[in-house]
Amino acid sequence: MPMQANSPVYAVIGDPVAHSLSPAMHNRALAACGLPGVYVGFRVTDLPVAVAGIRALGIRGVSVTIPHKVAVMPLLDEIDDTARRIGAVNTISNESGVLKGTNTDGLGALKALETVTAVDGRRVAILGAGGAARAVAWALSNAGAKVALFNRTVPRAAALARQMNLEWGRMDNLARWRAEILVNTTPVGMAPDAGAAPVAAAILDPAMVVMDIVYNPLETTLLAAARRLGCTTVDGVQMLVFQGAAQFERWTGVAAPVTVMRQAVIEALSPTLTHRHGQAAVF
Question: Which of 133, 176, 191, 250 is the most exposed place for a label (fewest CB within 10 A)?
Fold first, then answer.
């Protein structure tokens, strides 16, 4: 649809932001749905001024990426329960000048897993104890999964588990958890260590569902090992697309064209996709 003077503007803010796949994904979605608007990227170093600009310029919706997901929270007018419990905002909606924050990262992981399996009542092992682990753990436990956190830095996993009322363990005790779903939220498997995996293949079981939030390469070393063993696998692009789809629907009120959005991401990634160079899930 041709741009008009009053066409809505959407954006992603972060530092850096040039690598973001969100513009390719959201602009393709807008076009596929015949909606006016444009989605752009802004490198932001002065967050309070940027948030004031969102309000002053009437930017309709904003994706928030690192390093601003936590710092943006006190600058907004409203924060929903999801973002408050996760402790970070990745989505801002501008509703007549009222800036509302939420978080779709965990929902993106949940939706990605639900394309291949139900999570209610399933035993889930999450590798990592950072912001991504917190978002994924909240969404899956809220959906009825039995979640445990495993991290190489044991005190960090224990602290996060206590905050979220989850179980936790050392990486060398992972097999004892008998996970039915394994989710890697760590950066292990990305360049310059793209040949690495967060766990040994011996930990895996053919009945497992294995998800990795690293999305370049599409098939990480972990996912390749899982596939060879017969596990069901979920790549990081799925989470990226589903968290973006939730944003799109919140901003436009229109069902997101998920297949179109995934294709846009794959095409945007294709010039840089290699078997040995990876990228973490930064949206």
Answer: 176
pLDDT for 111: 98
Residue type, 216: N
Q: How far is CA 166 from the centre of its chain?
A: 20
What's the confidence (pLDDT) of residue 112? 98
Q: How many CA atoms lie within 13 A of 31 on its CB side?
A: 12
How far apart are the C-alpha atoms of 100 and 141, rounded to whole Å?
24
Three-class SS of residue 166? coil
Grouping H, G, I as helix, E, B as strand and the rest as coil, residue 59 is coil
What's the CA angle centered on 190, arms 222 and 136, to 5 degrees? Answer: 65
For the chain, give the mean pLDDT.
92
Domains and CATH numbers, the chain: 9-104+243-269 (3.40.50.10860), 107-237 (3.40.50.720)
CB 55 within 8 A of CB 26: no
Instruction: Report pLDDT for 195.
Output: 87
For 18-73, what is each residue's pLDDT tens digit? 989 999 999 999 999 999 999 999 999 999 999 999 999 999 999 999 899 999 99
- Given a contact cutoff of 8 angstroms between Cβ atoms, the answer to whether 62 and 34 are in contact is no
Measured in degrees and rounded to the nearest 5, phi and psi for residue 71 equal: -65, -25
Task: Based on the residue annotation, tell me whether 69 is a catalytic residue of this protein.
Answer: yes
